[in-house]
Amino acid sequence: MRKLISAACCCVMLSVSAQNTSIDVTHYGLKIHLNDTSNRISVTEQIEFSWIDTSQLVQFDLESTQSNGKGMLVSSVFDQSKSISYKQVGELLILDDLKAAGRKQISLVINYAGIPSDGLVISANKYGERTFFGDNWPNRAHLWFACNDHPSDKATISYSVTAPKYYEVIANGEQLNRIDINEHEATTSFSSNIVLPTKVMVIGVANFDSKKVANPLSPIEISLWVYPQNSEKSFYDLELAKDIFNYYISWIGPYEYEKLANVQSTTRFGGMENAGCIFYDENAFNGRRTSESLIAHEIAHQWFGNSASESDWQHIWLSEGFATYFTDLYLEQKYGTERMQKQLAKERADVIQFYRQYPHPIVDSTYENLMDLLNENSYQKGAWVLHMLRNRIGDELFHQSIVAYYEKFRLSNATSQDFIQVVQEVCQQDLNTFFNEWLFQSGHPQLKIGKKIKGKSIKLSIQQVQKEHFTDIPITVEITFEDGSKLQEQFKLTGKTNVFNFKYSKKITQILIDPNVQLLFEEK
């Protein structure tokens, strides 16, 4: 996703939910009824799951009715047509008398209704028209449907959405049908047979214009869903999705989902990577294609974040750092290395500035609010780790490592250690020091650099002045001579103070540190 788009969003507190490992959900089936007379929704939900630890009561995440009148009130729970007793406590639905009885797979039907406090955003778009958009990241799915709201528990999902018939409906998966129920309502059904984390399970209901984009390189349907009032400009901007999509398939591997719908929406984020159904902020499109990086970022998430997902929140860089760097790679292949370097330089400046406010490592388990993880460490610094890894091991091994990681953890979950292990296996190198210093330690090299040029000689002194310990830092300098020729020298910083002497046959006029933008550092 792209980060928060308004200051008002920052005040939302999303507590860290405990991972529920006693169950493994395999399928959600949602029958949702929406209306235009109120924000109240009614849901009949089927949940299929394995009860792994039968010594624990079965419970699902679902926000109960709050003092402000919002939340979901359960009216019944059935197990094979047998009524099950339950209680709602805070944000949990707890089943009191469910019996395993040797069954490997259990299927429940839960009926509930209410006004979502969040998660399903019911509002008006910038044109004043009513819209309904799922907006689940990180753990807001349970604010509108019962689930195991954690990225580690993936499941398939189907939707049956009944709404006033003048709306169009989009959701994850393949559209099965649209049936008129009566004079005023229609039901639209979708089904995804690909396992998804709850954070990217969504519906979108609005007045849309839609368009399919021809793509002879892939049978996957690419579609665009936009508000009619600016459809021409939005379609033009979003048609970039085709080339981005094709580039990632060629670099990473096959696309997993049934389709790639690109949807103008009215939700919290600048972009949200919902699986096969990306939502973009309603103001992102102006007919000048200024949102190319946004589109590239969200499409990259279809591989990293949606398919290969972080196993727990602190490993979010495996999603956001990867999407940020793959946006950089896309820009490099389309516009050239100089464009990528300019982007990396900006990202480096962002990381340095953020460190001054929040000196924490990328893999950070000290957060209290999950929204805090949407920061420059997860995005830009995560991207820089991948960039430095690429420069350390070379393009070929970097490509092999990323492909091997994705193939191993596609449609699954991974930790940072899982990624490290794959890279080391591919490279046959010990990279633990590199990853420990850049992922699990805060900070970055802060370098006090002294340059003394005397004719044909250089004395270069580089002192690390940061409190954190970094070893084996590769650095490049570019030397410009009087005749205009240039030479690059590479060496390593191994201690706090490093002194290098160079002598050449020509007079030296200039020294440039890190000319290729390959090191995350700050010059003091």
Protein model, in words:
- The chain is α+β, with helices and mostly antiparallel strands and 524 residues long.
- The protein has 4 domains: 18-206, Sandwich (Immunoglobulin-like), CATH 2.60.40; 208-302, Orthogonal Bundle (Neutral Protease, domain 2); 309-440, Neutral Protease, domain 2 (Orthogonal Bundle), CATH 1.10.390; 446-523, Immunoglobulin-like (Sandwich), CATH 2.60.40.1840.
- 23% of the residues lie in helices and 35% in strands.
- It contains 9 helices and 30 strands.
- It has helices spanning 231-238, 241-251, 292-300, 317-335, 337-357, 377-393, 395-409, 416-427, 432-440; strands at residues 2-4, 23-33, 41-51, 59-61, 71-79, 82-83, 86-89, 92-95, 106-115, 120-124, 130-134, 155-164, 168-171, 174-180, 185-196, 203-206, 209-213, 221-226, 259-265, 269-272, 277-281, 308-310, 412-414, 446-454, 457-464, 473-481, 486-493, 497-503, 508-513, 522-523.
- The protein has an 8-stranded mixed sheet, with no helix packed on it.
- The radius of gyration is 26 Å and the shape is elongated.
Gap from first CA to last CA: 33 Å
The number of helical runs is 9
CATH topology of the largest domain: Immunoglobulin-like
Radius of gyration: 26 Å
The second-level CATH architecture of the largest domain is Sandwich
Structural class: alpha+beta
Largest sheet: 8 strands, mixed
State the name of the first-level CATH class of the largest domain: Mainly Beta
Write down the overall geometry: elongated
Number of extended strands: 30
Overall pLDDT confidence: 95
User: In what order do the strands lie side by side in the largest sheet?
Assistant: 6-5-9-3-2-12-15-14
What fraction strand? 35-45%
CATH-defined superfamily of the largest domain: tricorn interacting facor f3 domain
Which stretches are poorly predicted, pLDDT < 50 over at least 5 residues?
A: 4-13
What's the number of domains?
4
Task: Give helix % range.
Answer: 10-25%
